[in-house]
Give the backbone structure.
Amino acid sequence: MFKKFAKSFLSAAAALTLATGSLPVTLAEETQIDPSVEQTLSIMTIGELATLDSALYNDTPSSDMIGQIFEGLYRVSTGTEVELGQAENVEVSEDGLTYTFTLRDGLVWSNGEPVTAEDYVFTYQRLVDPNGQNTSSSVEIFKNAASIRNGEMELDELGVKALDDKTLEITLEYPAPYLPKLLTGSRFMPVSKKFVEEKGEAYGTSAENIVTNGPFTLTGWTGTELEWTLNKNENYWDAENVHLTDVLVSVVKETGTGADLYDAGEIDYAILSDAFVGQYEGAEDFNTVPRATLGYIMFNDTKEPTNNAALRRAVSQAFDKELYAESVIQDGSTPANGFVPTGFDVDEEGVDYREAAGEILPYNVEQAQKDWEQAKEELGVEELSLELLVSDVDLSGRTAEYLQAQIQENLPGLTITIRSVPLQNRLEIQRSLDYDFYYGTWAPDYQDALNFVEQLTTDGGINFAKYSNEEVDKLVDQTRHELANDPAARREALIAAEKIFVEEDAITSALYQVSTSYLLSPDVKNFEIMPFGRTINLRTTYRAAE
């Protein structure tokens, strides 16, 4: 199943910087490749691919791969910095509402067809189509998007227009300085209008059913494989600065298996958790990076008994998050008491959102038991059984067992059963609302607290609970419109909305904030773990001499 690719030598040269429109663009380093050694890599991912359709994914493995094989108007240069990608130039109106992009010359899809402004119009229209399956509320940044999704306006009234083949005009519903970062997200990766229309529902279901425009193409995935390959896309506009020729990606669900494969030289990158972190900590090839990703539980609001807020509050306060982080995850991840992570959104005065909002619904057995008594009274029962839905990966299984033990011990009379299924099945079950509560993780698309809080609006992107609170919707809407240019009031509105859905309604509870601990071959350079959004960025990765 696994194979070790040969290694090659790469030396770095000077970086060039180019100013384009209103956004700086840094060209990649010039490189000299040793022709006798291949630039190849072998890495792991923890879950199966669910889809390669940017409009449909709701999982990290799919987002990670979409981010390697597609490129939008902007691209990530390093860390949280962005630069122009497929766009060569952008002009922004004085009111911050209109962005006019000029695409680069000669852009083509991996099948040789031209990339046009109309492809971007089609892409964004797919995201707001009321007949589509995309649930992300981030798309409502475009003018008229919300009205279109509600069936009040037509698709062609979206604030995205192709002025000609190379010129794209985007009009926003409200000013959004974070737009460049948002458009680097996997959700906003373009698709070929012609190809999608030809493939129909088959689009994105296998490697043969996509065409790409990013640094890599993808082969060897027909929809079920646990292994596939990223290949350098020679048609990519910046292909000369993409160094890897092939990247073998293998699904490895067990941490111990990944560590063993790494030690055996079978893979170059292995994700670690629990005791394996302590085993490798301090080694030259050990790394830990904090990320703005949350692990959380979500309750089904469409059926009894999980539509009972007292029951949800009881469960959410019945497990020790510090003990969970220290004894179950053991990878540097930290407890989370709120639905916006620490260090993610810092205001102009240096105050972190989480610090301003405080902890919400932390571990509290005494209060959990009071809420449990209230829930039993309201539901007219003395005992209950709830099913916890998780994916069949190592950490999810251990998380489920921990939650089961803690909740059953602290809330006598409440029984937790565990349902473990492959990730793609878990996502399908969530959409069909055939669950009581589930455990999952989520990474933001852009660096703003709004991106977390908006998830629990009525049409929020990960609102698989079908939760709806008019006050939450109203507060979030205000942050996008009348409060958009008042940072202090905007933050207060976000905090108020978060407290409603986390504390009062308790529809969701964050467990921890992710830190990614991993092993990486020392000769692999520019292998970047992203602080938010997709996990990895391989565009400038290369192998140096050992």
Summary: The chain is about 25% helix and 25% strand. Residues 1-29 have pLDDT under 50 and may be disordered.
